[in-house]
């Protein structure tokens, strides 16, 4: 009664070769030939159940106890953070809910506690305002340099890192120090080696040094109680850790892991938004028109003050919102992964055996013509203006009890940056627009990283004579994009 097994052409090692060669796209290749809603692939020593149908996703998301994300997160986070044995004991205690309810497990309690500070409301507002002020400062600084040539990915990564981490960690933000930012990206490159855990002192030496540097920076941060001046999110992360008995050192060791969620996907999303908008004149024209209609202009003393309210953008720029969703659909490589803790019957018909791994690869759903139509392979910035067949087929932010709580913050940040860019600048790549190539997909990545940096020429738009100043704000914090089935 297990889901049908798809066997590889080369017995035993065929799937491993496929995964190595096609990374996360391998599952879509397999699905293509079979078109079954769920299938099994057997690897030496393990079994994976790949789900490709929205009704089965909805069904699996209800089985939160028997099919667990928390147990996998617990195993990975200890290795990636390099925490103490005492911390491991707290993390692992009752993570499979065998000894009590979710409130008796640190991992489950923590995942619940992280949601309120990121929900629309005063805490998220405070973070958004700092973030918008920073992004606005970055575009002002860039405008002063125009005409100029920049490496787009490098520029975006730095500015988004600063805006995001200033919003979360406040005035003593450790990532404001460029050396710590560099250490984070070095640490991020080594995560897979930490997870494998074979002789990391040799295989991941630089990663270990970077991790130690970041942990030191956060010990200093918490020792100064700098979190007291930071966001509700930073305060919650610290206080929750202390309440559960973690040492300050261990909390500091976990903090770089938070930046994976915070930074690793926002920067590539912003990059791909600018790439798809500026590389296609029609997309640029549509998005620019919407932004211009939502911008208020006050003339006075030879100065035009352009005011963009990010809330107005959310309310009145449906093509821009559709473009964001299409970018996320098109460039999403995330996988929701769950461990089967007991033999479980899914949807009354498929037996999932204890010890198996359930995988929901977003691109399997995002590339299925049954959900998106015959033009599924094309980038269509207007696609989300009309209703898609099933909102559950859009998996860029996951779903169920691991639905990304940061989606409102991340989407506001990307939109703020993209609007400021479109409204103020013209951008052209040196040597044309390269076609995106996928060279490497990190297993924790949700959005593909650009495979190379892009040198671009930036000049200020010609907006007529006189002085032009720009103001950006956020008035209605309750207004959010509907980015997941749960938001609709
Ligand atoms: C465009 C940017 C982002 C994308 C595409 C994204 C995507 C995702 C996805 C697909 C998941 C679900 C993973 C799974 O099912 O296993 C997830 C989980 C998560 N995300 Fe995001 N994310 C983004 C930004 C952020 C930001 C800015 C934050 C923090 C402020 C954040 C915090 C989290 C957390 C804490 C989880 C785990 C939730 C849980 O397991 O309960 N994300 N994200």
TrEMBL record:
- Extract the GO molecular function terms from the UniProt entry: heme binding; iron ion binding; monooxygenase activity; oxidoreductase activity, acting on paired donors, with incorporation or reduction of molecular oxygen
Name any cofactors this protein relies on.
heme
Q: Specify which residues bind heme according to the UniProt entry for this protein.
A: 404
Pfam family, any one? p450
**Coiled-coil boundaries:** none
Record keyword Signal present: yes
Q: Could you confirm whether the keyword Signal appears in this record?
A: yes
InterPro entries according to UniProt = CYP450_monoxygenase_sec-met, Cyt_P450, Cyt_P450_CS, Cyt_P450_E_grp-IV, Cyt_P450_sf
Query: Which CDD domains does the record match to this protein?
Result: CYP7_CYP8-like
This protein's UniProt keywords: Heme, Iron, Metal-binding, Monooxygenase, Oxidoreductase, Signal
The record's comment on protein family reads: Belongs to the cytochrome P450 family.
Do you know which PANTHER family this protein is assigned to? P450, PUTATIVE (EUROFUNG)-RELATED
Name this polypeptide is given: Cytochrome P450
The species this protein belongs to is Lophiotrema nucula
